[in-house]
Fold these 3 entries.
Entry 1:
Amino acid sequence: RRYEGEVCLVETPQQLERALTDIHDDRVVGFDTETRPAFRKGESYPPALVQAATAKVVYLFQLRRTEVFPVVAGMLESPRIVKTGVSVSRDLRDLKAVIPFNPQNVLDLEGVARRCGLKQTGVRNLAGMLLGFRIPKGNTTSNWAAHTLTSAQIAYAATDAWACRELYLRFESLGLLTLPDRA
């Protein structure tokens, strides 16, 4: 299953303003990053895309656009908004190489899942177990640093962030969230 709601690839000042408003109006934002894959030993790349899923829209921020940096940093630094994802510590570490920020109120669902005794803690497996649907693998090795993203890349990226938000809400409804899991 894929995310079927509104997706906004942030490209204009108006879209950036809308993203800022929507993100700061929400209490929980699904968070993920995508990075251009490296195929040689020792080769690595910085994140190229940040995804932020609100209740209304999934926003995609291409990091080649430096004007998105303040919105992304502001979201990650907000103590009022829960930012949630799977393996977010790695995402945050890699993102700090591109944008300076001090993350607050970030919850890694991988830790929540492990504490609950779940061994399979990836987004796809957790969605299957807790949300009752499978997320297609798709574009894991596509070029996220490309100037123009394909519709398949956009759908994949939006689905990952949306699933993280939905997983948080599911864990919350089951009473399984506690403060020690926050980064």
Entry 2:
Amino acid sequence: MQDNNQVDALKAFKKAVEVDPNHADANRNIGFIAIRFRDYKSAEASFDVALKSEAVKRDVEVFIAMGVAKRGLKKFKEAEEWYKKALEVDKKDPRPWYNLGLLNQEHLTGQDNLEQADIEKLYNVAKEHYGKFIKAAEGDKRYAEAVKDASDRIIIIDDAINTFRVMEQLEKEAKAIQEAAEKAEQERRKRLLELEKQAAGPGWSERDGARGSEGRRGGRQGQGRARRREGRR
């Protein structure tokens, strides 16, 4: 459905909702169109109304779309719950697995204050979901492109995890080099201090040695002056 057709359809569905605010099919379709335009708030509200209908409560399309809406609103935990509900409605539908993979790989990993171990864990969960999607969608031409994308994403995740390993090893090596350099500097300073003490000798300092030399010179000069005075007498 092209954008112009979607806009016209949206207007028609909204008119139906004006007549009957709880019109399940109209709200359902408003939600789908809102998702296409990334109006996740409107989609969420429309699906909430549509899901009051018993018929819609078994509609896997709505469950998946609600998960997308929640994900777009950064309600990640709720998005995960809706994808899992979709699996309960139809265990054979592979799409919830793909969406769970995306949720973990691209959205949960972008949260603040995550450690590298947390990100790696999410990547591994995403890989698991992609693997289940590929297995469930195998042989279904409708999902051929998505299967290739999921396979590529697994490769990307493996590369990212390997990069984590390399960076972790480099950080350890850099830390070891820094610690070794600091220890070597401490040992160097310690040796210099020992050499200075050995050169000074027990109870001796450069200042004390200078004072002793001046005293000896002064004594000799005084003795010479005394002898000259005695000679003049």
Entry 3:
Amino acid sequence: MKKLIDSRQYKQALDLFDRQLQMSTNVTFTLALKACSQLNDHQWGVRIHEQLSLKSLKDPFLQTSLIHFY
């Protein structure tokens, strides 16, 4: 996912994130939020935020990524 974002393939990175949602980690959530920010895709970012709320992930990097997204 990081390679896709580094090469500015944000949509592909989010597609990969969706396919691997059950195995997502703090890092993949952070990367997905970065991709949403770059695409200005508010709807997808909100979906990711909802997933974070369901999983009760409270990592400082994730919280910072959410701030950058909004």
